[in-house]
Design a protein that fits this description.
Blueprint: H1 65-75, E1 78-84, H2 90-100, H3 103-109, E2 113-119, H4 128-140, E3 148-152, E4 158-162, H5 169-194, H6 198-208, H7 216-220, H8 222-231, H9 240-261, H10 265-279, H11 283-300, H12 303-316, H13 321-342
Parallel strand pairs: 1-2
Antiparallel strand pairs: 1-3, 3-4
Helix pairs in contact: 3-5, 5-6, 6-8, 8-9, 9-10, 10-11, 11-12, 12-13
Length: 345
Amino acid sequence: MHPRLTFLIGLFLAMSSSLQSQESPATPPAAPGPNAPPAPPAPLVDPNAQPIEVQTPHAAWFVDYQAARQKAIAEGKHLLLLFTGSDWIPLCSIFDRDVLNQPDFVDSISETFVPVRFDFPKSRQLSPSVTAQNQLFMRAYRITAFPTVFLTDTDGRPYGINGYQAMTPANYAKIITAMRQMATLRDQYFEKAAAADGVEKAKLLVKGVPNLPGNLSARYYRQQLETIIANDPKDETGKVAKCKRLIADVDYSDQMQKLEQEIEWSKMLDLTDAYIRENGLQGQERQQALFNKVGVLQKQGNLPEVVRGLLEIAAIDEKSPLGQRAQGALAKLRAQKLEEELSPR
């Protein structure tokens, strides 16, 4: 099957294999523009970063995703996707030098995976087609940090996420190879679920759906989540509410993106208010949703409401990362206002 390139992101060093240990989903970030990746909590690009000497990738690494996918299909392998900033992030350069380009790593994982690099350099230009492809996958997998490693099947469904670890290439290869078992277990549970009914079907699917950050389980395994909901009316799995919430998160994020493309700012605000109210958002989830509103209000040029929104975010929890981010934004606005007042008329 040729997928429509609707794929995943976020960075975990490892993940469990089921919904059973899934944490509460993160509220989606403010909807991205039609040509931009979702805004990360901190900039991906450091404007003061110095160029780094780029390591020549091992010959096994693909740059063209479709070519890599065709090879994986032909050879019965899966895909290892690397997202990296090779020439401006020291950790990416170290990862390349010490692990990713070493034969002990590449030769070992190539028995199971076809590796693909999605690079985002600063000091050199990639071809327009490669740049467009990389941006597409960055948005699709919700990448907010480099380096990030995804393991997927040839239909693009992710099941394992990793990152840099200070270890030998051979040991890192063992970890990546072992993670392939996650997909095997997933498929076994899905196969058993296909032959089951009712709550038993739901329980098997709960065990099979990979535990992905944010709402990504709903993006890639929505059919399974909807089946869990339909087959567990009494919530005997204890996961029905979570499945519904994950699906709601995806629908909200997608609707926000569509409304932004249509420049429907007021509808975006109304949608976010309804999303907060209907899902009873509290804590950091409420803070993130309010940041979505702040982003829309900024585009409207509604400074008083921007300030009000930032104050509400900070009041929820001033010590959380989002609370501190709101306070930082407020401090900048105060400084700008003071500068305007002190400037000669």
